[in-house]
Structure formats: C-alpha cells, structure tokens
Write a structure and sequence with these properties.
It contains three helices and seven strands. The protein is of the alpha+beta class and about 140 residues long. The chain has a single domain, classed as Alpha-D-Glucose-1,6-Bisphosphate, Chain A, domain 4. It has a seven-stranded antiparallel β-sheet with strand order 1-7-6-5-4-3-2. Strand 6 and strand 7 form a beta hairpin. The longest helix is centred in the C-terminal third of the chain and has 19 residues. About 10% of the residues have low confidence.
C-alpha cells in the first residue's frame, strides 16, 4: 500500500473549488496524470490515467459525499488493484484549504506492494503536488 497526503490553500470559497473538483469533465484541466474521461454518470466515472508512460483504466465510485466539504472516491484498476481518493475542503480566511489523500493498494499483496514502490517511487507525491498547484492556478484564475 502507498499513501500520499498533501494540501494547498486556494484563494476561493469552498463552493467554487468544489464545483471544479467534482466535475469529471474538468479533470483534464488540473489532474496531471489524467489522460481521458471514458464515461461519467451520477457518482461513477471511468478514467484513463498515466504513470511513467503507461496508461491504465480506473473505475471510480463516489463512496461518501458531503458537499462542499468532503468526498471519497473508491477506485478499481488493473489486476484487481484498488485506490481511494479523499478530498477535504475547509474554509480559511476567505479561501479554502484543500486536503488531498490518495491510497493505492497494489495487487498480489506484499510482493505487488514492493514492485509498485520500485516502479513508481516518489512519483505519486510529486504528481499530487503538481496537480494541486494546477487546481490552485485554475480556480484562482476563474
């Protein structure tokens, strides 16, 4: 299992940030590893992501949602891998503190976890931070 936790302060109210992060059609505007939205319906989406030049598909289901404060997406990827992505929005001084958490569980138990760490290393954390910087720029520009 690997977990990435990071956050950023965005100079916009939580509702404005929420509108962007919860719109699957806007993922390409801020998520660095997003390649394609394959389908989206109420509380579900299929997405193509890319890490280290390899595309892979994830099916996401919205597991918990309290607009505009908190959302948890649970994903199923290739080879029975699992992911969970959590968003927490907290108002701060007229802006929003956006906290992001992603947990990835590789297939094949401990062996898969070791292989996953060897392949991706610190890439998920770097990509998460770059993604949040993109989000900040996007929302503050609008």
């Amino acid at each position: 299992m690997s977990e990435v936790i990071t956050s950023i302060t965005i100079d916009a109210p939580p509702e404005k940030v929420w509108d962007v992060i919860m719109d699957p059609h806007r993922l390409s505007e801020w998520v660095t590893i997003h390649r394609k939205l394959n389908s989206a319906s109420d509380g579900e989406m299929d997405q193509t992501l890319c890490l280290r030049g390899v595309n892979f598909h994830v099916h996401w289901e919205l597991d918990d949602c309290e607009a505009p404060k908190h959302a948890v997406w649970k994903g199923r990827g290739p080879a029975r891998s699992h992911a969970e992505t959590e968003y927490r929005l907290t108002p701060v001084d007229g802006g929003t503190r956006f906290a992001y958490r992603n947990e990835f569980k590789a297939p094949l138990g401990p062996l898969g976890a070791v292989a996953s760490r060897a392949l991706v290393g610190g890439l998920p954390e770097r990509e998460a931070k770059a993604t949040l910087r993109n989000l900040k720029e996007l929302v503050e520009r609008e």
